[in-house]
Amino acid sequence: MRKRVYIVYTGGTIGMQPTADGYAPAPGYLASQLAAIPELRDAAMPAYDIHEYDPLLDSANMMPADWLKIAQDIAAHYDDYDGFIVLHGTDTMAYTASALPFMLRGLGKPVILTGSQLPLCEVRNDARENLITVMMIAANYPIPEVCLYFGDKLLRGCRAVKVNAVGFDAFDSPNYPPLGTVGIHIDVHWENILPPPTPGALVVQPLAAAHLGTLRLFPGMHPDIIANVLRPPLQGLVLEAYGVGNGPVTNGAFMAALEDAVARGVVIVDCTQCLKGAVDLEGYATGSALAKIGVISGFDMTVEAALAKLFYLFSLEAAGGNPEATANSDFIKQQMQTNLRGELTR
Ligand code: ASP
């Protein structure tokens, strides 16, 4: 039987056209471009259906509600297709790719996000290769994960970061090896892929409207900045600290602001500003002082994954009655430091 893939087109460069204001998405344009690609009618290719969203978005305008729309769309068509492709702008693709693994509990089929740096309508583009390759992978390789494919690498979604604003190798997963590499052959690295879930239905976890933030430290940051960021109603903060998670701990006002927030139940997760490597709050006195006042380690999670995971965990708590949740931040802190979807190494 011919394999079938479901393609969601959310917007993004891949299906945009040039306008007087720069590239912009246009309804119906991507489907007409796909119809004009003869390779997609080859017997080696799966059958596909495409669902174009309205409105089409530049991903810079996407919100958690858009992640939910994608998750629910996949769940609604889950039994009818072998794999799912999410065509998405590159700007916030790593955020969506980080959120979907938490939202799609029990996922047993491939969900692959991709897009391009140049649209299909340009003679020279990366869209065509990305699209054809993800269609083949989504149809033929039963990878039970949310992945991101770009520039010949298949990455775990919740490990991916955008590392290049203009190159075709726009994404990387610095702290986890690729799930697949593509050259003459498509090589799926099964040893890096999560085991399939226990059989059961796919469950979508909606995200609650949690008050979350990220803050990147820099030398000379006034303590008022961190105190203002941490003010109620903030519930969780990803603190982008130096190196293995260090901060300016001799600054009394900085530490007092953090300590006060922790006492109010704000979950503060320490992630590194470095592209590669993990937080180790025992490595230096400038890190252990943060741990002592209740800042928790984000280990080697990306900022995108830490933020998505906070959204997810605060949603479980808001949902109440969910067996995974309890109504206190200790549960969230413990889960933040536990590997749930392959997002951190411990
Ligand atoms: N601004 C675009 C977007 O993220 C960039 C892209 O698709 O590459 O939607």
Task: Present the secondary structure layout.
Blueprint: E1 4-11, E2 16-19, E3 22-25, H1 29-35, E4 47-57, H2 64-76, E5 83-87, H3 93-103, E6 104-105, E7 111-114, H4 127-140, E8 146-150, E9 153-156, E10 161-162, E11 171-172, E12 180-182, E13 186-188, E14 203-204, E15 212-216, H5 223-229, E16 236-241, H6 252-263, E17 267-272, H7 285-292, E18 296-297, H8 303-319, H9 329-336
Parallel strand pairs: 1-4, 1-5, 5-7, 7-8, 15-16, 16-17, 17-18
Antiparallel strand pairs: 2-3, 6-14, 8-9, 9-12, 10-11, 12-13
Helix pairs in contact: 2-3, 3-8, 5-6
Aspartic acid binds next to loops.
Could you explain the architecture of this structure?
The protein has 346 residues and is α/β, with parallel strands linked by helices. The protein folds into two domains: 4-204, 3-Layer(aba) Sandwich (Rossmann fold); 212-336, Rossmann fold, CATH 3.40.50.40. Helices cover 28% and strands 23% of the residues. The protein has helices spanning 29-35, 64-76, 93-103, 127-140, 223-229, 252-263, 285-292, 303-319, 329-336; strands spanning 4-11, 16-19, 22-25, 47-57, 83-87, 104-105, 111-114, 146-150, 153-156, 161-162, 171-172, 180-182, 186-188, 203-204, 212-216, 236-241, 267-272, 296-297. The strands form five sheets. Strands 4-1-5-7-8-9-12-13 form an eight-stranded mixed sheet, with helices on both faces. A four-stranded parallel sheet has the order 15-16-17-18, with helices on both faces. Strands 2-3 form a two-stranded antiparallel ribbon. Helix 3 (93-103) runs parallel beside helix 8 (303-319). The longest helix has 17 residues, at 303-319. It starts with a strand and ends in a 10-residue tail after the last helix. Residues 323-327 have low confidence and may be disordered. The protein binds aspartic acid.
